[in-house]
Amino acid sequence: MSNINTIAGASTADLLKQKSKIDGTHSTGGAAFAEQLKSALNEVNEFQEAKTQAVADIATGQVKDLHQAALAIGKAETSMKLMLEIRNKALNAYKELGRTQL
After folding, report:
1. Residue 11, SS3 per DSSP
2. Dihedrals φ, ψ of 50, to 5°?
3. Per the domain annotation, does 59 fall within a domain?
4. pTM of the entire predicted model
5. For the chain, how far is it from start to end, CA to CA, in angstroms?
6. pLDDT tens-digit profile, the chain (102 residues)
7. Domain residues for 62?
8. With 0-12 CB in 10 A as exposed, 13-18 as middle and 19+ as buried, what is 51?
9. Alpha-carbon dihedral angle through residues 74, 80, 86, 91, given to the nearest 10 degrees
10. Measured between alpha carbons, how far is 27 from 60 in angstroms, rounded to an integer?
11. How many domains does the chain fold into?
12. In a domain, 62, yes or no
């Protein structure tokens, strides 16, 4: 059993170094966000394609490892749920900004 007190927290200096690395790679925050979002969407798409292939393999009896197929299906389902929650949060934030009076 591991002791939870042995886990070291991130220092402020480490966090600032990471922030400067991120800021140095992108000129604007909007571009960085757009790249991260595009990357996440591509990853979800890859999981969905792997799931489709796994389901097809199961249906045709060509599955080599049922456990790996089940994992692919689970990853795709979880990633899709996460992406939908992110979309819902973004839409709620957009609606809230629309209700804000200037």
Report:
1. coil
2. -65, -40
3. yes
4. 0.62
5. 55
6. 445 445 455 666 666 666 666 655 545 677 888 899 899 999 999 999 999 999 999 999 998 889 999 999 999 999 999 999 999 999 999 999 999 877
7. 11-99
8. buried
9. -150
10. 49
11. 1
12. yes
